[in-house]
């Protein structure tokens, strides 16, 4: 098999609260280059590790890991609506393989996914259906979280499964880096918000618009003294990228969840998708990785980065 990896940030605010045109163009160029590389690789399968932001998964039953055999995009934040072309049989085989590797994983035969999964797919492939895909959701915004070492074990099991396939596989991780958008917490939430976090599937268009308006408003003041959200932390982001590039995945096992939330923001845990993606790649042997881009972008509430990797 052949494998390539790309991990990159996503943002709900692209096109809704943009930074200056020079930065938008810079990111567009980075994404165009990444997309050209994907086109050249011509993957036969994409495995995308992604978070969910209370669109598909809620506290009525909140799993840490989910593999989907079928998935529909809810179309939030200007992403496309509709089905992904999921490689259903392979997704089921992967689930069996992971379970047989002593790692528990939930299975969905009908998962709703949000911009956290679809924005990156669209950016790197142009659509939700260009290549067969296996969506894997890793809980990144709904505490409590399992330890980072567990994410590594999960990613490694997925990687060992991919090693059994005779295919060109693109592994994606989407989310992070440091950031804290206004995603509500269930602890101490008023009833209305708690009810939404427990069972808020399929919001009305008005409720969806209100959510998006709150995020846009937060983006307008993010990084200023008016914002109550934890600011971006470029130093933390660059150290994390360096850890991945240097292949020091062992050191991630002991990442302190509370400390990361405090110094880099609560949604920084979307890096769990990057950790799983790199662990999958590392399960196939030594790799070489390259930081393609990094810039902290307040308007997008994103420590925005892109890292690529492949076997050495
Ligand atoms: O319900 C909402 O829309 C709450 C806000 C939200 O989901 C924000 C998501 C932000 C990201 O995806 C991100 O910054 O990673
Ligand atoms: Fe996100």
Q: Overview of this structure, please?
A:
The chain has 312 residues and is of the alpha/beta class. It has a single domain (2-311), classed as LigB-like (Protocatechuate 4,5-dioxygenase, Chain B, 3-Layer(aba) Sandwich), CATH 3.40.830. The chain has helices at residues 21-41, 88-100, 115-125, 148-163, 191-199, 205-221, 234-245, 257-264, 271-282; strands at 2-8, 45-50, 65-68, 71-73, 82-83, 106-108, 111-113, 133-138, 168-174, 287-297, 302-311. The strands form two sheets. An eight-stranded mixed β-sheet has the order 6-3-8-2-9-1-11-10, with helices on both faces. A three-stranded mixed β-sheet has the order 5-4-7. Helix 4 packs across helix 9. The longest helix is centred in the first third of the chain and has 21 residues, at 21-41. It starts with a strand and ends with a strand. The model has no long low-confidence stretch (mean pLDDT 98). Bound molecules: the ligand O=C(O)CCC(=O)/C=C/C=C(\O)C(=O)O and fe (ii) ion. The site of fe (ii) ion has 7 residues, from loops.
Topology overview:
Layout: E1 2-8, H1 21-41, E2 45-50, E3 65-68, E4 71-73, E5 82-83, H2 88-100, E6 106-108, E7 111-113, H3 115-125, E8 133-138, H4 148-163, E9 168-174, H5 191-199, H6 205-221, H7 234-245, H8 257-264, H9 271-282, E10 287-297, E11 302-311
Parallel strand pairs: 1-9, 2-8, 2-9, 3-6, 4-7
Antiparallel strand pairs: 1-11, 3-8, 4-5, 10-11
Helix pairs in contact: 4-9
This protein binds the ligand O=C(O)CCC(=O)/C=C/C=C(\O)C(=O)O and fe (ii) ion (FE2).
Fe (ii) ion (FE2) binds next to loops.
